[in-house]
Write a structure and sequence with these properties.
This protein has helices at residues 16-28, 42-55, 87-90, 96-104, 116-137; strands at 5-7, 10-12, 31-38, 60-67, 70-72, 75-76, 112-113, 141-147, 150-155, 160-166, 169-176, 185-186. By secondary structure, it is of the alpha+beta class. The chain has a five-stranded antiparallel β-sheet with strand order 11-10-9-8-12, covered by helices on one side. A hairpin with a 2-residue loop joins strand 10 (160-166) and strand 11. The chain starts with a strand and ends in a 5-residue tail after the last strand.
Amino acid sequence: SDLSWPSPWGRGRPGWHIECSAMAQKYLGSAFDIHGGGVDLRFPHHENEQAQSRAAGHPFASYWLHNAWITTAGEKMSKSLGNSLLIPSVLERVRGIELRYYMVAAHYRSHVEFSFEALDEAAVGFRRIEGFLERLDSGTAEIREAEPGIWLVRTTSGAEVIVHYAPPVVILRVAVMPLPSEIGRQAKLCR
């Protein structure tokens, strides 16, 4: 049902916007960098939080990130629909870093269609990246820097890989392809 009442300014609603502003003020301060939430909260909730906080003289959030939903079987995953998962139960299946890798693989404004099969595939992919980094760290791979942000790597097995990086994130994307032998100069592994 619609929780509202008539008022001189239009339909009145409960004060959940002010509650969130109060919590942000208490735990984050009057000004903080990033406020996030689902795209469905942009209006009216986030706009109201921002308006009332600024009207009270608080700068509130500098940046807003509105993420798309996690869906399962084509429906938004939520407590109210009864199709949500608890993180501790998911972490019985994969490590936390593997779950994070799965969740951030898609653009933050893109829907993620959750399935355990896709999660398992992402975990395997992350373990491959971990193994690759371990081989790099152990010195068993030849690393050449083709240009800033791109490493050319040849492993002891002869596999040739292009690695895109942007410190402090070491690997953003890995693509296997032939390397021209004349490319590059020796590079050091970024820590």
